[in-house]
Give the backbone structure.
Amino acid sequence: MSDSQQTQTQNRTRTETTGNDQPLETTSGETVEEARAEWTEYDFRGNAKMVAEDLDVYYGDDHALKGVSMEIPEESVTALIGPSGCGKSTYLRCLNRMNDRISAARVDGSVQFDGKEIYQDGINLVELRKRVGMVFQSPNPFPKSIRDNISYGPRKHGDIDTGLLARLLGRDDSDAERKLVERALKQAALWDEVHDRLDDNALGLSGGQQQRLCIARCLSVDPEVILMDEPASALDPIATAKIEDLIDDLSEEYTVVIVTHNMQQAARISDQTAVFLTGGELVEYDETDKIFENPESQRVEDYITGKFG
Amino acid sequence: MAGATRSRLIEGETTTTDAVAGVTVGLSAILFALAVGALFEWVSLTGTVAGLPTVTLLGGLLIGLGVAVSLFGLGSWLGYVETDPDASAGLIAGFGAAVPWFVIGGGVVSQTLGLGTGAGVIGGLLVGGVAFAGTAVPREDVGSTVPLGALLAFVGAVFITGTIGPEWIWNLDWEQQASVTAEFLVPVATLFCALYGGWAAAKAYGRFGARGRHMGAYVLVYLNALSIVAFLFILIVFVVVKGLPGLLTGVEVGPGVGPQVFGLFELPVSVPLVMNGVALLNDFQGVLPAIVGTVWLVVGAVLFAVPLGVGAAVFLTEYAERGRFTQAVEVATNGLWSTPSIVFGLFGFAFLIPRFGNQKSLLAGMLTLGFMLLPLVLITSREAMLSVPDEYRDASAALGVSKWQTIRSVVLPAALPGVMTGVILGVGRIAGETAPILLTMAGGTFVPGGQTVNVIGGFEFTGTPPFVANPELLQATSALPYQLYALITAGVGLGSNVADPDGFRWATALVLLVVVLSFYAIGIGARYYFRQRLRHE
């Protein structure tokens, strides 16, 4: 017991001290070490891109995520499923530190990205969020033109400059911008639909097109991981199918983590699935086929077959 | 569902009853217009309209409207007219009918019968109670027409019999010698009766029931909206008509008649009122220094208040944690916005003037008005930024864009139309302020054209810090609201300077109105432009 505590404290850098009441055991009763040992037995096809260790999140007094440890393999689709309020979105937002933006949220534990701890002082949040991008539940393009939506990120990072001064000095990046916009829109399978109206306002697109634009916007800054928070829940079945095809294509190049309420969707598109159940626990994490055909836990089976939640 | 009737699903052709009800609605609209006309003395009460004495005509129309409305209600009750009335007209309609009847009952008992105030109140309560019961107790078709119809007929009878004629006057035995005259009472009574009559007639036109109440509410709401637009229109037309002769005095059109512009060419139009100052030998006097003073005043106040206000709003919405501090700032800004302008003026007088050369100056006026503008810009900018969806901020943060860049590139552009609204409202207020100007920057009433402030040309460089000076900013100058105030109320004589003093005053008022409306137009145009950029880029 004391041994494992030591190991953990060494591994983990706490960004916010919360006292030493950190639960050593996961709520399912096994120690974190045991749980991790179990999960690492699962044979990942590639290296782990992101590793969360014993992650706890509190919103004020509410303990929203309880001791979650989980490895996300590279260039694959990982689905997070579970009932509402089970902490899956909270977990997702920990992976690029978007929870920092909620002042009541407190994160405790460790997340490593490419082996580097992201919950440590001095981490470059700009760089982290460039490399770990995010797509939100409801499409949220900026009230700008389609072109400006895509070039917004690179422009703000100084990668592209088409401003007046740059034009006067002959350092105009219009060509680079054009290529970038075309590449991002093609990757998001939106190019054919909008290539002749790039200067139109993005708010004039349909919901499904807006969501693919948001994916293209996310791709514009060359991320390595794409976090998607129920990206298709506000869309009709046809738009959903397009987004699913897109995710399938993206997984060849990117690491995709997707939160979804729709179990069929998880089964269709993901390589491995994590099931969160009420109370913020990660109950089971395995290959998708295994989860849906032969889950270890009775609670997961009940949830998947619709007996609960 | 006892007593419930099925209403017709499809209305047929226009029937005679529809036509009658429609005519009564039209009649009440005519009465409304006549009453408004009489109130503004466009229709003379002592004169005649269409060959009839005005008061007699009003009385006759009121009786006709009242009888028609009552007959419609009774006809519906007796089954001659097909309607779908409810069981009762309701409590609100009851109170609506009780109030005028209370006034009439009280007036008749206490004044006409001379029984004193106590008896008047009792009589009023009795009559009002009967009207309330008569409205609320019977079925809707009778309740919402007969008491109001009787009211109209009663008032009409009072007018037509000459009980209240055009010369009628009622002296109140107050120390202030107040009296109610026919010139006031007749139009106001007619106005209210027309509203009541129109309401009842519209209910009848909609055949009572839910649809009838809907029609009744429509008539009231439309008349209300119409009056607001009409009053605005009347006000502007009034000022324009009064001011135009003064403005056009001495206008010349032709090559080379106007003043030089930037020393380059001469304007082909000469409008002395807006292009001249006041001078002894001028053929026509003008208010140019005051116009320029007002424009600079507003420009200076906006340049001072908008960056400060928007900056404070950015801090409060985007950076400060919501808590005691932001609440305190909110209370303080709301309080500042409600502070009377003369208090701002005193602040400028006691605090700013001693610091700017101890004399009234344009700069002190600008800053005082800027302080007045600040709270509104802060409040509206804050509201505008709070209404920018958090999704934009999340999306920007998820791309790794820093907070300040997000504010500059996403939040502020989305909030700009709202900020513009605040500036428009604020400029509308400060451009017409008189009190602070009086205390902080007012110069003479008659300012020679040569003393027109030249802020841009006034900048000069000096050898000592702060290396730039502008004596023009530190001079007293005039502004249109102050000039108008001085011309009209302070009794500053126009003497032989101006041939037509009244025309000169009205023309000044018109110029002030035009200047303020121009600022409005610029603001609304800018807001439209920013909105377009957000929506249809």
Observations:
- Chain A touches chain B through 35 residues (CB under 8 Å).
- The longest strand of chain A covers residues 48-59.
- Residues 1-30, 35-45 of chain A have pLDDT under 50 and may be disordered.
- The CA atoms of residues 237 and 243 of chain A lie 10 Å apart.
